[in-house]
Design a protein that fits this description.
Layout lengths: L4 H14 L7 H10 L7 H10 L6 H26 L3 E2 L2 E2 L1 H4 L2 H22 L2 H24 L7 H26 L4 H25 L14 H4 L5 H9 L1 H10 L6 H11 L2 H22 L8 H13 L3
């Protein structure tokens, strides 16, 4: 992804801000440093920075907002690892694996509280309202998805709703609050919110496809993690509709530990044929909606970088 030198510098400032003003309590510092030792992609923080790019907006506030977005995202990941009983995250051992579930839950809470302290300092009720609402929606999405594990009668619309709540919602909030901070007009704020929402949902569908890739070293999580947990995502949903024979095999293995041979078979059924085409078509629909809205922002200083981000979302391999 080609970003301007200024945007790259701003993302670096976000990383620095994340590590600033940390407590001296040893256990908190130890876990916090471990979590942020490896930088993530910061796609949500990037969206915030691009949307808030404006000569009249405060650089300090823009960095703080992007930092808030990244902290909120990280807190959700730490809590997710407890819920999913995951042993790895971003290619390294998860916090709950190295310490305990209790440490993970409380560390996630600590990071949430750090984000909300920064949020209050922005002194903008519109941003506070949007981010608190988004945080609430993310929790709803995770709960709905948890309740859906192994539920074979789940519908396509329910799965799309989960994708929006658990992933698209924070993308939407990052983009929308960035636009608010960047003093965009009402229509531009709505446009940026739509861009974030659709990019986020496309991002999640791509993530769900990557779960079935046989070579999972790039994505930093165990192969077929979602499938083995009994989690039905859109790629699996479409595969279950397309072929009766494949459906019987997939259902017989869903939510179970399976052999290497069966892992390859599961991946083959998901990543080939009609089900893959439908999954890609669905993802492309969200990409097209985002592209349509980006086209309305040709005079915005971040226009070209927004297009770069869209290309990255489609082609990413991790």
């Amino acid at each position: 992804m080609k970003l301007s030198k200024n945007t790259i510098k701003e993302l670096s400032l976000v990383s620095s801000q994340i590590k600033r003003e940390l407590t001296n309590i040893k256990i908190i510092k130890e876990i916090y440093d471990y979590i942020f030792k490896i930088d993530g992609k910061k796609i949500r923080a990037l969206l915030s920075l691009l949307a808030s790019s404006n000569k009249n907006s405060s650089k300090k506030s823009r960095i703080n907002l992007a930092t808030i977005i990244e902290l909120l995202h990280t807190a959700t990941l730490i809590h997710d690892d407890v819920v999913d009983d995951s042993y790895s995250r971003r290619g390294k051992k998860s916090v709950n694996y190295l310490w305990t579930n209790g440490h993970s839950v409380l560390m996630g809470d600590f990071i949430y509280s750090k984000a909300f302290k920064l949020m209050v300092n922005l002194d903008d009720n519109r941003i506070l309202k949007e981010l608190s609402s988004a945080t609430n929606d993310i929790a709803k999405g995770e709960l709905v998805q948890l309740d859906s594990f192994g539920r074979l009668k789940i519908t396509e619309s329910e799965l799309k709703r989960i994708n929006y709540l658990k992933t698209g919602r924070l993308f939407e909030a990052a983009s929308k609050t960035g636009a608010i901070l960047g003093t965009c007009n009402i229509n531009e704020v709505k446009t940026f919110a739509s861009i974030g929402k659709n990019i986020g949902i496309a991002f999640q569908i791509k993530d769900d496809l990557l779960d079935y890739e046989c070579n999972n070293t790039k994505i930093g999580k165990p192969k077929l993690k979602d499938f083995k947990e009994g989690k039905i995502t859109l790629p699996l949903f479409y595969a279950l509709q397309s072929n009766a024979s494949n459906r019987n095999f997939l259902l017989s293995k869903l939510g179970k530990k399976i052999s290497k041979k069966d892992e390859k078979k599961v991946s083959k059924y998901i990543l080939s044929g009609e089900s893959l085409l439908i999954t890609k078509k669905t993802m492309q629909g969200y990409i097209n909606l985002a592209a349509k809205n980006i086209a309305r922002l040709k005079t915005h200083p971040s226009y070209n970088e927004m297009l770069e981000l869209l290309d990255f979302i489609q082609g990413r391999e991790k």
